[in-house]
C-alpha cells in the first residue's frame, strides 16, 4: 500500500490544534486549573469544527485527514474530558461511603470507551448515513456536557468532592448517549444564508451577549438541551408513528 509522503497543511494544522488543546487540558486538570481545562476542550471543539470545513472549502479532503481527525477527537473528546472530571470530582469516590472505591476511574474509563466506539461507528457508517442526523450523541457534544459541568463548578467554586454522585451521573449519561441509537440533528443542512423573521432578529445578538456575560452556564445549558433532544425526538417520533398506525 502506498504511504503518504505529503499532507495538506491547513486542515491538518486545525486538527493538530484541537489535539493540542485536548492534551493541554489534561495537564491543566493535573495542575488543578479546571476552568482553564474546560475552556481548552471547548477550544478544541472550535478547531475540530474548522478542520473539516476548511478541507471542504479548499478541496483538500483526504483519507489521512479523516483518520487523523478521529485520533485527535479520541484524545480531545474522549480521554481528556474523562480525566478532567475525574481530577475535579470522581477521584473522591475512593473516600465516599457506600460507593465502590474503583467506581470513579471505572466510570471515566467507560466514558472514554464509549467515545472510541462512537468514533469508530461514525467512521464505518459515514458513507451511508443520513447527513442531516447523527446516530448517538456526537463526542464533541458529550465532551461539552462533561466539561461544561466542570467549568460551571469551577466558575461558582463548587466542591467537586461533594458532588461525586452527580458527577457519576453526568459522566455515565454522557458516555452512554454516545453509543445510543438516538438521532440528533446534525446542523449540516443548516445554512447561514437562511432567512430569519424580523421579530426574531434580536435572538443571535441576545445569545452572543449571554455567552459573553456568562459563557460557562450558557454553554452547559445549550449542550445539555442538545443532549436531551435526542431522546425527546425519538419519543416524539414513536408517539407520532403509533398515532398514524392507530388511524
What does this structure look like?
- This protein has one domain (9-246): Four Helix Bundle (Hemerythrin (Met), subunit A) (Up-down Bundle).
- It is 69% helix and 2% strand.
- It is built from eight helices and two strands.
- It has helices spanning 9-30, 34-57, 63-88, 103-125, 139-155, 164-178, 202-213, 215-246; strands at 133-135, 183-185.
- A two-stranded antiparallel ribbon has the order 1-2.
- The termini are far apart.
What's the short story on this structure?
This protein has 247 residues and is mainly α. The protein has helices at residues 9-30, 34-57, 63-88, 103-125, 139-155, 164-178, 202-213, 215-246; strands at residues 133-135, 183-185.
- CATH architecture, by name, is Up-down Bundle
Strand order of the largest sheet: 1-2
Number of strands: 2
First-last Cα distance: 57 Å
CATH topology: Four Helix Bundle (Hemerythrin (Met), subunit A)
Biggest sheet overview = 2 strands, antiparallel
Order of helices and strands: HHHHEHHEHH
Mean pLDDT, to the nearest integer, reads 89
| DSSP summary: helix tally | 8
Helix/strand class: mainly alpha
Shape annotation = globular
Which CATH class? Answer: Mainly Alpha
**Computed Rg:** 19 Å
What ranges have pLDDT less than 50 throughout 5 or more consecutive residues? none
Task: Estimate percent helicity.
Answer: 55-70%
Q: β content, as a range?
A: under 5%
Amino acid at each position: 500500500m502506498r504511504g503518504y509522503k505529503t499532507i495538506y497543511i491547513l486542515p491538518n494544522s486545525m486538527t493538530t490544534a484541537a489535539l493540542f488543546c485536548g492534551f493541554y487540558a489534561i495537564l491543566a486538570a493535573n495542575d488543578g486549573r479546571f476552568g482553564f481545562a474546560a475552556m481548552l476542550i471547548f477550544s478544541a471543539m472550535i478547531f475540530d469544527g474548522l478542520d473539516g470545513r476548511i478541507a471542504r472549502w479548499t478541496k483538500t479532503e483526504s483519507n489521512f485527514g479523516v483518520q487523523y481527525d478521529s485520533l485527535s477527537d479520541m484524545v480531545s473528546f474522549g480521554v481528556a474530558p474523562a480525566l478532567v472530571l475525574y481530577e475535579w470530582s470522581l477521584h473522591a469516590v475512593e473516600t465516599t461511603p457506600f460507593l465502590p472505591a474503583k467506581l470513579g476511574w471505572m466510570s471515566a474509563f467507560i466514558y472514554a470507551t464509549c467515545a472510541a466506539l462512537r468514533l469508530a461507528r461514525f467512521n464505518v457508517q459515514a458513507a451511508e448515513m443520513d447527513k442531516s442526523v447523527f446516530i448517538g450523541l456526537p463526542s464533541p457534544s458529550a465532551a461539552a456536557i462533561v466539561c461544561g459541568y466542570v467549568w460551571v463548578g469551577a466558575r461558582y467554586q463548587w466542591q467537586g468532592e461533594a458532588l461525586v454522585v452527580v458527577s457519576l451521573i453526568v459522566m455515565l449519561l454522557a458516555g452512554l448517549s454516545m453509543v445510543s441509537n438516538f438521532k440528533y440533528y446534525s446542523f449540516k443542512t443548516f445554512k447561514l444564508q437562511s432567512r430569519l423573521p424580523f421579530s426574531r432578529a434580536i435572538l443571535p445578538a441576545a445569545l452572543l451577549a449571554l455567552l459573553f456575560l456568562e459563557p460557562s452556564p450558557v454553554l452547559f445549558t445549550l449542550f445539555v438541551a442538545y443532549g436531551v433532544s435526542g431522546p425527546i425526538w425519538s419519543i416524539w417520533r414513536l408517539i407520532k408513528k403509533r398515532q398514524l398506525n392507530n388511524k
